[in-house]
Amino acid sequence: MIRQDEPEVESDDPKGRLAGVSEDRVAGMSFDWLVFARAAQLPPLGNWTTWLLLGGRGAGKTRTGAEWIRGLAMGLPFAAPKPVSPIALVSETITEARAVMVEGMSGVLSISPPAERPKLISGKNRLEWPNGAVAQLFGAGDPESLRGPQFAAAWCDEAAKWSRAEAAFDMLQFGLRLGDHPRQLITTTPRPTPLIRRLVSDPAVRRTHMRSTENRKNLAQSFFSAITARYEHTALGRQELDGELIEDDPNALWQRDLFDRHRMNRVPELERIVIAIDPPVTSHARSDACGIIAAGRRGERAVVIEDLSLRPAPPIIWARRAVEAFHRLKADVVIAETNQGGELVTGLLRQVDPDVPVRAVHAKRGKWTRAEPVAALYARGLVSHVGLFAELEDEMCAFGPNGLSGGGSPDRVDALVWALNELMLNSAIPRIRGL
Fold it and tell me: What DSSP line would sit under 29-74, residue for residue?
C-alpha cells in the first residue's frame, strides 16, 4: 500500500451541509468545489511542485484535476493566490485529453460556471478563459510536441498508461519554468511502470490516494455489485478499485522491465502474422475472457501487435473479432485452442468465414510448462510489444507456478503463448507480409 500524505476520509453528505440554505444560495454554491470535495481531492498543504494522485476507477481523479485547473486559471484561493497561465493538459493522446480532461462529464467545461467557462479552440487544441488564462492540450505519445512550449502549471492524466511516459514527462519538466511557483498534478490509476515507480520513490513528490468506494454516491450501484463481486481481493481489483500500486510477483514468469526495454512505437514490416485464440468455456458475465492476441515475426524477433481479448465473450462475437483481425492485419492463419470446445471452435470460425485458414491446437501440458519457453524468448530480448498492453502485461506479471496471483484464468497469456509458439518455436517457412 502506498503511504498517504493526506487522510482518506469521505466527505460529509452535501445535502446535510446545505440544509436550510436558500435555493438561490445553493445554485451559487453548486460550483463551489470546497463544498463538495473530499479531503483527498484538495491540493496538499505546503510548498510542493509535484502532486501525485493515485486512485481507483471512478474515484474522482478527473474531477479533482479539472477543479484544480479551474482553480489555477481563475485564481481561486484553494489552488492559487492569482490566476495561473499558461497551463499544459497532457493525456496519452490529444483526443483523450479533449474527450476526458476537457469535454468529459467531469472535465473542465462541465465543472465551470457559465460566466467563467473557457472556450475550446478546436483547431489549436487550446482552452481560453474569459480572464485571459490559457491551457494547451498535448498527447504524451508525441513527446516532441512538448519541446519548446513553456508553462506555469500542468495536469497529466492517466500517466500510468502512457506508451512513452518517461520521454513525455521529462520533456514536460523542461517546460515548467514560468510564474512564481510552477506546479504539476498527475492523476492516474496506478501501474508499476518506470515513471510511476520513479514518482512514488521521490520524497519530494506529494501523494494522495483514493479508493473507488469513496465516490460510491456518484457511481452506478451496478458497477459495484458486478465489478466488486468479481475483482474484490484480487491483485487487479486492488489496483483498479483500491488504487494500490501492485508490484511484480517475484515468482512470475515475466517482469515488467522486459516489456519496457524492447517496446516499439509502431508495427514494422513483418514476415508472418498470426491470430491466436484461447476461447472460454462459457460466455456469461462472470465467465473467463476470450484471449485473442495478434502477433508477427520479423527475422529472429517476434512482435505483439494487438490484444483483442474480450469479456463477456459470446462465441459469435469473439469469432467475428478474430476473423476481422485476420483480414485487417493480413494474417496468415488463426490459431485456436480446442481443449474447451473441440471442433465447435474451428467450426464457428469457419461459419463466420469459410476461407480463413484455421489451425486447431490442443494443450497436452500445463499452462506453466507451455509458457516457460515463451518467457525465455522475452528474457533473450526476442519479443517486443507495440505500445502498452496494460491488461495483458498485468496478467503476464501475475502468472506464477500456481496460476494468476489473484486467481482466475490467464486467458490473454494462453493466447499469447499459442501465438509466439507458432511464430518462434514451430518450424515454419516465413512469407513476406506487410501491414
Answer: HTT-HHHH--GGGSPPSSS-SEEEEEE-TTSSHHHHHHHHHHHHHH
**Of the candidates 75, 185, 89, the residue with the CA atom closest to the CA atom of residue 130:** 75
Check for a shared fold between 14-240 and 257-425.
no
| Cα 435 to Cα 433: distance, rounded to the nearest angstrom | 7
φ, ψ of residue 228 in degrees (nearest 5): -65, -40
Residue numbers in the chain where pLDDT is lower than 50: 1-15, 284-285, 428-435
Task: Using CA atoms of 295, 395, 191, 102 in order, give the dihedral in degrees to the nearest 10.
Answer: 60
pLDDT in tens, 362-415: 888 888 888 999 999 999 999 999 988 888 988 898 888 776 655 567 889 999
**What percentage of the chain has pLDDT greater than the value 70?**
84
Q: Look at the block and give the residue holding cell 504524451.
A: 140
Pair 71, 131: CB distance under 8 Å:
no
Q: What is the spatial distance between Cα 28 and Cα 17, in angstroms, rounded to a whole number?
A: 15
Strands 272-278 and 333-337 come out as: parallel
Q: Rounding to the nearest 10 degrees, give the CA dihedral for residues 222, 223, 226, 230.
A: -160
261-310: pLDDT as tens digits: 898 989 999 999 999 999 886 654 455 789 999 999 999 999 999 999 99
The domain spans of the chain are 14-240, 257-425
Residue length of the chain: 435
- Over residues 225-239, the pLDDT tens digits come to 777 666 665 666 777
* Residue 233 to residues 94, 236, 404, Cα–Cα distance (Å): 35, 8, 13
List all residues 6 or more positions away from 290 whose beta carbon is below 8 Å from its beta carbon. 277, 278, 279, 280, 309, 310, 311, 313, 318, 411
Domain at 14-240, CATH class: alpha beta
SS3 305: strand
Q: Which class is domain 257-425?
A: alpha beta
Judge contact between 382 and 295, C-beta under 8 A: no
Question: pTM for the whole thing?
Answer: 0.61
- Residues contacting residue 69 through CB under 8 Å, at least 6 positions apart: 87, 89, 108, 135, 153, 155
